[in-house]
Structure formats: structure tokens, C-alpha cells
Amino acid sequence: MADIRNDFVGIKSPNPFWLASAPPTDKAYNVERAFKAGWGGVVWKTLGEEGPPVVNVNGPRYGAIWGADRRLLGLNNIELITDRDLQTNLREMKQVKMNWPDRALIASIMVPCVEESWKAILPLVEETGADGIELNFGCPHGMSERGMGAAVGQVPEYIEMVVRWCKQYTRMPVITKLTPNITDIRNPARAAKRGGTDAVSLINTINSIVSVDLDNFAPNPTVGGKGTHGGYCGPAVKPIALNMVAEIARDPETYGLPISGIGGVTTWRDAAEFLVLGAGNVQVCTAAMTYGFKIVQEMITGLSDWMDEKGHRTLDDITGRAVPNVTDWQYLNLNYIAKARIDQDLCIQCGRCHIACEDTSHQAITSMVDGIRHFEVMEDECVGCNLCVNVCPVDNCISMVSLDPGTLDERTGKIVEPIYANWTTHPNNPMARQAAE
Amino acid sequence: MGTTDTGIVAGRLPPAEVEANFADLHAPLTRHEALVESDRCYFCYDAPCMTACPTSIDIPLFIRQISTGNALGAAKTIFDQNILGGMCARVCPTETLCEEACVRNTAEERPVEIGRLQRFATDAAMRENKQFYRRAAPSGKSIGVVGAGPAGLACAHRLAMKGHAVTLYDAREKAGGLNEYGIAAYKAVDDFASREVDYVTAIGGIDIRNGQMLGRDFTLTDLTARHDAVFLGMGLAGVNALMTEGEAAEGVEDAVDFIARLRQSPTKTDIGVGRRIVVIGGGMTAVDAAVQARLLGAEEVTICYRRGKENMNASEFEQDLAAAKGVTIRHWLQPLRIVTGAQGTVTGIELAYTQLVDGRLTTTGETTVIAADQVLKAIGQTFEPMGLEVIGLERGRILTDAEGRTSLDGVWAGGDCILDGEDLTVSAVAQGRDAAESIHRTLMAVASPAIVAVA
Ligand SMILES: Cc1cc2nc3c(=O)[nH]c(=O)nc-3n(C[C@H](O)[C@H](O)[C@H](O)COP(=O)(O)OP(=O)(O)OC[C@H]3O[C@@H](n4cnc5c(N)ncnc54)[C@H](O)[C@@H]3O)c2cc1C
Ligand SMILES: Cc1cc2nc3c(=O)[nH]c(=O)nc-3n(C[C@H](O)[C@H](O)[C@H](O)COP(=O)(O)O)c2cc1C
Ligand code: SF4
Ligand code: SF4
Ligand code: SF4
Predict the structure, then answer these.
(1) Is A166 a catalytic residue?
(2) Which residues contact B400 (CB under 8 A, 6 or more apart)?
(3) Are residues A294 and A393 in the same domain?
(4) Same-domain status, A296 and A414
(5) Closest ligand to residue A365's CA
(6) Which DSSP letter does residue B39 get?
(7) Which domains does chain B have, with CATH numbers?
(8) Which of B49, B53, B117 to mutate to test the pocket of ligand 5 (most atoms within 8 A of CB)?
(9) SS3 letters for A146-187?
(10) What is the CA radius of gyration of chain A?
């Protein structure tokens, strides 16, 4: 059996599945249920300053997009940080940590961007016995209007400054949670690192209007006739999150900085993808909010079974394994040539591959052969783009087959070269020409 | 072409046709089909399908594991609750169990195909002979299990997991119980029953003794002396008789015997069937016998049942299957006598029309004769309490408590032979498994007496 115990910046948990800071972690009742269901850790719903807590809207706070069969693909929310009193949260956190010493309990914090505020709250949190803190620099709605959350996360200097205060005023490990609502994720990550953060976590939610009520001309969710942009999360945001995690993992300045991967994790497979792209563990919100805490059982067994099957013994065996294979476009091998191939036994003859290729791409798939409906790739036209693979409704029906060096590429009439050659040395590249001259 | 001769003859259909007829009733799902179907599951909270499953398999979890490409993990989820999940996937009347409860019925009158998904997962594990369980350290306890049917096998496996040594006695030549000798051939093709016995007993610590019959070769007292505990999973070895004239005639047979012969024939082409067959009964056995007779080439097969359609034990699905295979089901007919010809062989059956009068079944006075050269009796099986006189019975079956304990200390029972038996493979599995847990608790409590507080 694979060992999936997790050690993230010294914080130990029985598995790498943590609940992200959000409604599922807003109070002891939920967190206790989560731990019973098997979650390895939680990041408690973001705490605010002492004093009257924030208030939430009293109407709808969520909107969503769905795939076929009303499967929830993306969730949007306009919820703020915890609307419960700070002391109540701290008391419950302490009790839960005492009841569940083997699980990770992290406090998420968002207070105004002044040193006194951070200095004041850190000892209170430390007193709960929490294993670490997460700095919420990500919330993109509501709190950012008040100069917190994403408003801080979008200014690298602020990030560095706050992280430095935290490192100064607490012994607890500091995880800096980043907002994706920026142009280059590496900048805030680098700033966090300069400030001395122990780790970064990402992504928080993405600015979004999920849909519009066409009868009332207002964005959804509509609160009394008006709406506001919210934070987008769930399966739909995973590709964005994966890229940002990989960017940080392979940036020379932040290379090796521990990452907690967040964004759309719904199955064991999603989690494994985050891990191999450099995440030390993952956090989950929407999947739990859609299916309940029991969903973690699929993640735990799936990850562990996959590791067994592949002979990976511990999480260290897989973390970051794909990072060396993430590169810039210019370094991709232009001598690698692939052609689509249709498995005629699996093909149900829907014609989607044909029309995608015919109307929008390279006219490389037949629709009729000898008067019979038949879909087949014409190798002399196929550029190997993979579009057909992605539009085919049958899993594994179309596959990409690479041409061996020395064989003929019927499209170009050239022999496949055995050597690696990329854009930097390609004759059509003006920069390469300049360099050669 | 085959033959339309009268009498019980083999080879009514060409071998190739027989082989095709006895192919898998429901073909296994392909990977693509399994992915599409598993995507339909809502991962319900406190899932109704799970409650409807007598073994309480975590259906939403295993289906989700299939959808995420973890078929082996799905198999383990199934086997955790039901080690005969492979057979159950094939034989469970899902339309009255899990699939009847599926919320997709409410939404669109089409449940998630839980049974076929269960087969997809368990097939994957069994194909690789992936063993999920290891025996615990030997407990030093020995348990005698009588009957190697679903109840006995499930009990033995769970006991072996706990480290106990199990001796499994069965009167028949092969283990498996009705999985091996009773279930319709097209539900368990490719020798599945015996492959499953091998898969289940591969855990070790289960010593199967075939040809050993309680009441003939040994007594209950022998067992209780030899073992620390005993589990009785003997099923229903007896059959009800028609009690009519001509019952002993050549051509009259118990349906279960006919089916057992059929199941034991690798090609089925050596099994003779009549040209015109009448099957008496209204349950699963009647349907299975009738359908399989048709598949062997019988020209006319009629099921005669003494009550109405709504009283039949065979499910709607089974009745439809019979109709689809060309079996005629007739209701409100009760056998009066077997009509025999010159050589004492069956030529027909005389039946009385019946009706309900004030809730009681009576004959109307009208009779009919149906020509037949073979009559199969499927009017119910009975428990034969051979050598079990010391155990409390009720209505001819063993009385147990909720954990499977009989009236005799150290003796448990489960499956068809107990009063709570449901004539379902899956219920037998559940009862065998639960009895094993009860046996384990009892033996371990004796082994390590409760720690007395020391002041
Ligand atoms: C024709 C037929 C078709 C069926 N089809 C289905 C179906 O499609 N789906 C479904 O869910 N259920 C079906 N059933 C019911 C199902 O087969 C039984 O409910 C199930 O097999 C009961 O399991 P068991 O272990 O209690 O008994 P059995 O399977 O009957 O096993 C009992 C075992 O005990 C042995 N035994 C009996 N007496 C002694 C003795 N004195 N000493 C030693 N060994 C003994 C027998 O040889 C046998 O191996 C069918 C039953 C029949 C008869
Ligand atoms: C309703 C809701 C409330 C959230 N509240 C917080 C919060 O208080 N603090 C925080 O750091 N992130 C918050 N998040 C963001 C999540 O922690 C997480 O980063 C995001 O949802 C992406 O993960 P997912 O795709 O698994 O949902 C919230 C998300 C949702 C849906
Ligand atoms: S999820 Fe619960 S709290 Fe929210 S609107 Fe529905 S019933 Fe109300
Ligand atoms: S999209 Fe796939 S299934 Fe449809 S015709 Fe093309 S290969 Fe066949
Ligand atoms: S009831 Fe149907 S949809 Fe719900 S968990 Fe069971 S199989 Fe899935």
C-alpha cells in the first residue's frame, strides 16, 4: 500500500487532501464532520479582525455553470470571510485541534494591511494550537473593495510586507494564498518568497460574472435586482490553477518553494496532476460543496491505488515529477510528428471529427469512402493538431500516433528527422537567422 | 437442422445455436459504456440504492471510482461488503433491489445500471486475480461451515479474514451451492461460479470438503465437538411434491434437478428436452427451467401457475424474459394428474381451473389437458433438517436471531435455510457475512475476557 501521509512545511496530515478555507470549514460542526469523513486537514474559514464581524448578503450568493446532465462545472460566489465572531472561531478551532491532533488545522487570516492588525491577531491564533496560518490575499469581491484580499494580492510589495510581519510575529509556518486575478503569477509568488513565506497556496477564486438574468437584466446571483462580480471556482478553473502552480514550480526564483495546490480538485486524478506539477498537497472546496465530504474517499483510494499500480511509494516520489517537462513553446521539438488515427471498431460514426477538421482545420478526415459513410484520417493532410481527439465523443477512439524517425511524413513529403530541433534554431525564425549571421 | 421428434431428446438444435442461446444474458459493459453509465450517478447522499442492497454496498462510491478510472478500487469497495459481488452483479434481480431505488427512476424512469457497473468493476479485479484481503494472524479458532453456497462462502471468507481456520463441508461434488447448480446458465457463463469459488477461497485458511453430508457422513454433535463454532448454510435441499397421480411417470422431473444437470453440462447439447413441456410453478425456478428448455429447442413451453400474474414470485423482468423467449405463461391452473401413455411415459397433464373465493383458492370445476412429453415441477423447495432435530425450527426453517444465532449455543445459520431466508443470492451473502462477524465477536470475547478493573 502506498504511503500517502503528507508533510507540508512540517505540518503533518494523514493524507494530502485538505479542505480549502471556505464554508465547509466555517465552524466546528462542519470540520468535525469533515475529519470523520477522512479529510487530512482543513484551512479554517478566513478570520477577520476582532470586533463586529463582516456581514454577508441575505440572498443568493452562488451562481453556476453546468455541463450535460446538469453536472456542476463552475461555481461563482459573492461570500465574504467568516461572518462569525473571532473569539467563537478561535475557541472552536482550539477544541477541534484538541479532538483531532493527527489532522492539520490551518488558520486563514485577513486583516487590514497595517502592521498593528497582524501583530494583534497572530498571538490569538497561535494560542489555538493551529498548525500554521494562511494569508488570504485572494478574495476578489467585497473584501478587496475594502483594501484587503485580492487588493493586497495584486501588489507584490504589500504581499512581501505582510508576510514579513507574520514571519516576525509568529513561529507558525506561513502559507501565502495567492489570487489568480493578476497577469503573471510569478510576481506575487516571488514577493511572498522574499518576505520569507514558508509556502504559497493557489488559486483563490477568479473574478467572474457567471451568467446574466435576461428577464431582469442583472448578473447572477441577483440580490434585489442587482448583482456583482464574484469568485469563480470548481472544475472549470483547474486548468488555470495548474498552469499557475507549474509557473511557480519552474520559476528559478521560486523553485522549490512548497505549494499547496487549489482549484477545481474533484477527483484523485485532479489531485495527482497538481502534485506532479509541483504541489506538496491539495486543497478542495467546490467538490466538497457539490457532493459532500464523503467525496474524499474516492480521492484517497484513487490516489493510493494509482500509486500502488505505478509503484510510487510516497508522495515525495510523485511531487514535482512533471515539472522538468513543463517548458516554453520555443523549446518544443519541431521534429516530433504525430498523426491522428481512428479506431474503426470504436468509431460510432457521428462525424464530429470530420466536421471539426473540415470546417475549421485541415481537411484531413474523410466522411465518405466509396460511397459509404466512413471517417478516416488522411495522413497526407493531417498536421497532428489533436482537435479531432478532443471533439470525439468516444474515449480513446482517436489517438495520436507519432511517426518514427526515418519514416515519411506524407503531408510534407519529408523524412522524419531523428534529432531534436526547436524554434530557436529554425530557419524561419528571424532571431535565429540574426544569431547565425 | 435439429429435430422435432416427440419425447425427451437431445440435439433439438444445432450445437452452434445452443451455444449462442446460452451466451451471456447481459453482455459486459465496454469501458466506454461503463464511463458513460457511471457518469449518470449523482453520488446521492445516504443513497437509496445502497439501502436497498441487502449487502449495503457503497454504490455511489464504487460508481464514482469507475468514473475516475479506478475500477480496481471500485471492486474493493464492492468486495468489502459482498465478496460474491461478481455473482450478485449477474444474478441479482436489480429491478426489485438497488435499481428500483435509484433516484434516476424518479427523474427519468431509467435507473443507473448498477448491476452491470458492478460486474464491470468485479470482472476487472477477477481478471487480474487481484486479491484485496489477507488473513489476519491465526486466531487458533476453528469453525465448521456446512454448505458451500453463497451463505457458506461469504461466512467462510469473512472468518478467514479474521484469522480463523474454516472447514467447509458440502454434500455436493462441487462448491458454490446454487451458483453452481441452480442459477440459469446464461447468467453465469464461462464457468463463473467455480472461478468465483477459487477467487474467494484464494485468501487461504478455508478447507473445502466436498461429498460430506451432514446427517449422513457426520452429525451436528461431531461438528460442535470438532469446532469452536458452526455455521449452517445448507440452503433448501428438498423439493415439494405435486401429490398427484402419475407423478412418478417417466418424463416428470424436478425443475431444480433438470437445471442442475443442465448447469453441469459443458455444451448443453447432451441435455434432452421434450417437444412440448409444461412447467408447474410461478417462481424464478419455473421461469429459468422454462426459458432454458426453450433455448435447448423445446417447441412449446408452458408455465402453469395456480394463481394470478400478480402473485407470481418471478419478477416482472423474469416474466418478460420468459415471454421474449417464447414461453407461454398461463395462470389460474392447478395440476390434477399426469396423463401417461402406453409405456408409462408422460403424454400430457390434466389441470383444473382455479379461482379465488373469499380469498381462498378453489377449483372452478372446469378442467383442461395440455399435451406434453415432459413435465417440470417447480413448486418450491424445502429445508431438510437432516440431523438437526435439536435446533429450533419454525415453518420448516431454522429460526435465528438478527445476528444469525440459532437456538443452540455455538451454532449460527444463514441463507435460504433460515426462516428469514429470502431466496436471493445476495441475502444469503449478507447473512453469511453477518453471522461470521457475530461468530468472531463471540469467540474473541471468550478468548479475551473483559478486563476487570483493578483498584
Ligand atoms: C433455479 C434457481 C434459480 C435461482 N436464480 C436466482 C437468481 O437469478 N438470483 C438470485 O438472487 N437468486 C436466485 N436463486 C436463489 C439463490 O440461488 C439462493 O437464494 C441462494 O443460492 C441461497 O444460498 P445458500 O447458500 O443459502 O444455499 P445454496 O446455494 O442452496 O447452498 C447450499 C449448499 O449446502 C449444501 N448442503 C445442503 N444440505 C447439506 C448437508 N446436509 N450437508 C452438507 N451440505 C449440504 C448444498 O449442496 C449446497 O451446496 C435461484 C434459485 C434457484 C433454485
Ligand atoms: C463560497 C466560497 C467562499 C470562499 N471563502 C474563502 C475564504 O474565506 N478564504 C479563502 O481563502 N478562500 C475562500 N474561497 C476560495 C476557496 O478556498 C478556493 O480557493 C477556491 O474555491 C478554489 O478551489 P475549488 O475549485 O476547489 O473550489 C471561497 C470559495 C467559495 C466557493
Ligand atoms: S442550501 Fe440550505 S441554506 Fe442554502 S438556500 Fe438551500 S436550504 Fe437554504
Ligand atoms: S468523432 Fe469519433 S466517433 Fe465520431 S466519427 Fe469521428 S472518430 Fe468516429
Ligand atoms: S440512487 Fe442512483 S444516482 Fe443515486 S447514488 Fe444510487 S445509483 Fe447513483
Answers:
(1) no
(2) B406, B412, B413, B414, B418, B419, B420
(3) no
(4) no
(5) 4
(6) T
(7) 39-127 (1.10.1060.10), 142-237+383-447 (3.50.50.60), 247-380 (3.50.50.60)
(8) B49
(9) HCCCHHHHCCHHHHHHHHHHHHHHCCCCEEEECCCCCCCCHH
(10) 25
Decide: B322 and B302 in contact? Cβ < 8 Å.
no
The C-alpha of A340 sits at a distance from chain B's nearest C-alpha, in angstroms, of: 19
Kind and range of the H or E run holding B130: none
For chain A, the domain total comes to 2
Residue A336 inside a domain? The answer is: yes
Whether residue A29 is contained in a domain is answered as yes
Asked which of A293, A308, A325 is the last residue of a domain, the reply is A325
- On whether residue A133 sits in a domain, the answer given is yes
Q: How many angstroms is it from A394 CA to the middle of ligand 4?
A: 7
Q: What distance in Å separates the CA atoms of residue B404 and residue B54, rounded to the nearest whole number?
A: 15
What is the phi/psi pair of residue A210, to 5°? -80, -30
C-beta of B98 in contact with ligand 5 (< 6 A): no
Which of A325, A350, A380 is the endpoint of a domain? A325
Residues A418 and A382 in one domain: yes
Is the same domain home to A102 and A199? yes
pLDDT tens per residue across all 455 residues of chain B: 567 788 899 999 999 999 999 999 999 999 999 999 999 999 999 999 999 999 999 999 999 999 999 999 999 999 999 999 999 999 999 999 999 999 999 989 999 999 999 999 999 999 999 999 999 999 999 999 999 999 999 999 999 999 999 999 999 999 999 999 999 999 999 999 999 999 999 999 999 999 999 999 999 999 999 999 999 999 999 888 888 888 899 999 999 999 999 999 999 999 999 999 999 999 999 999 999 999 999 999 999 999 999 999 998 899 999 999 999 999 999 999 999 998 889 999 999 999 999 999 999 999 999 999 999 999 999 998 887 888 999 999 999 999 999 999 999 999 999 999 899 999 999 999 999 999 999 999 976 665 554 44
| Length of chain B, in residues | 455
CB A321 within 8 Å of CB A345: no
**Contact A410/B at CB under 8 A:** no
Q: Give the global pTM.
A: 0.93
Contact check, Cβ <8 Å, B65/A302 = yes
Asked whether the beta carbons of residue A298 and residue B61 sit closer than 8 angstroms, the reply is: yes
From the CA of B43, how many Å to the nearest CA of chain A? 7
Q: Whose CA is nearest to atom 33 of ligand 1?
A: B147
Partner residue opposite B70 with nearest CB, options A291, A302, A395: A302
- CB-CB: which of A268, A294, A396 is closest to B68? A268
Instruction: Name the catalytic one among A113, A139, A166, A353.
Output: A139
Q: Is the Cβ atom of B102 under 6 angstroms away from ligand 5?
A: yes
The CATH number of the domain where A95 resides is what?
3.20.20.70
Q: Are B206 and B166 in contact (CB under 8 A)?
A: yes
Domain that holds residue A214: 6-325
